Amino acid sequence: MTSKTMNKYALKPLALLLLAAFALHAPLSAAADEKKDGKDAKDAPKAALTVTTTKPSAARLPITLTANGNVTAWQEASIGSESNGLRLTDVKVNVGDVVRKGDVLATFSADTVNADLAQARAAVMEAEANAAEAAANAARARSLEATGALSAQQISQYMTAEQTGKARIASAKAALATQELRLKYTRVVAPDSGVISARSATVGSVVGAGTELFRMIRQGRLEWRAEVTAADLPRIKAGASAVVKAANGAELTGKVRMVAPTIDPQSRYALVYVDLPAPKGAEANAFKAGMFAGGRFELGASDAMTVPQQAVAVRDGFSYVFRLNPDKRVSRIKVQTGRRLSDRIEILGGIDAGTQVVVSGAGFLNDGDLVNNVAAAAPPVPATAPVPAQAAAKAAKAK
Description:
Elements: H1 3-43, E1 49-51, E2 53-54, E3 57-73, E4 76-80, E5 86-91, E6 98-99, E7 104-108, H2 111-144, H3 152-185, E8 187-189, E9 194-199, E10 206-207, E11 212-218, E12 222-229, E13 241-245, E14 251-259, E15 269-276, H4 282-286, E16 292-308, E17 313-315, E18 318-324, E19 330-341, E20 344-349, E21 357-358, E22 371-373, H5 388-398
Parallel strand pairs: 1-22
Antiparallel strand pairs: 2-21, 3-12, 3-16, 4-11, 5-7, 5-10, 6-9, 7-8, 9-11, 12-15, 13-14, 13-16, 14-15, 16-20, 17-18, 18-19, 19-20
C-alpha cells in the first residue's frame, strides 16, 4: 500500500467526524437564536393604553357673562284706604288674583257717607234759594237806584247779599263734592292691571285713611336685578339679551332695561335691571318675586380653539391635555381652559392648533406613557341623510 493510499483512508474518518459535529451544532445555534429573539420580544416595552387623538379645531363660541341676583316685581303698587273710620264690609280678591284696572277690590259701609251726602245736597239747595232771593233784591235795588228811593248804603247791602249768596252756593257745592268723593272711596279699585301680591284687608275692620289694604305687582311684570362687578359693568349695554335660570332649571329670556348709575360701596357690585316677560304655564310657578336666580348675559360671539371635553383631564385643580409625540409616548401639558359649548372646551393657552392631543383614555394616562394610537371612528351618518347613489338618482330625476 502506497503512502498516497494510506492518506486517502486516513482522511475519511476525519471528514465524517467534522460533518457530525456540524450537524449537532446547527440545531443548538438555531435554538439559541430563537431563545434570544423571544427574550428581546419579551423585554420590549408594551403600550399602556390604546387611545384616539385629534387636533384642536376652530369654532365660534358665544361670549357670555354669568351673574346672580334677585327676581323682583318691576313695580309694586300699594293700595290703601282713602276713607276714615268706615267699616270694611266686603273683600273681593285674595293673594295671587289677577285684576284689571278699575276692578273693585273691597267695599266699605256707605251708610254714614250717604247721610252726609244727603245733607250736603240739601245745603246746596238752601244756598241756591237764598242766593236767588238775594239776586232778586239786588235787581230791584238797581232799578230804584235812579229814583233815590233807596240810599246808597242800602243798595250796597243788597249787592253784597247777592255776592254772598253765590259764594254760599259754591261752598255748598264743594261740600257736596267732598261727600261724593267719600262715597266713591267706599269702593277700593285697582289703580292698574296686575297680580295681588299681599292682602291685609279684613272684613269688619275699621281702618283709617292711608292704611294699606293690598299690594299689587303692576302688570304682572317681573325683573331680574343682577349683581355685576365694576370690571364687567362696561361690557353690558341696554338692550342686551339675558337668560335667567330658576332653581328648577326653567329659563326666561329678557332684555337689559337699565344699568345702575352707581355701585354699592359695601359689596362693590352694581345692579343691572333685566325686564322679564310674563311667565306662563310651568314658568309661572318657577319664577316668583323675591327668589334668587342665576343667569347669563349674551354679549355676542368670537372665534376660539376648542378640543373635545374628553381630552381635558383635571388633576389637583388644574387642567391638562396629553400630547402624542413621534415616539408614541405622551407628554402632559398644562392648559388654560375657557368657554364651553356642548361637549367642547375652549383652550386659551398651552398648546397650538397643530398639537396632536389624546381624546379617549386621557383620564387614565400619566406623563411619558407609551400608547397605541388608533384612528377614531367616523361619526354615524344620520338616518335622514341620503346615500350618494340615492342623491345621484334624485338629481337625475330632477333634471
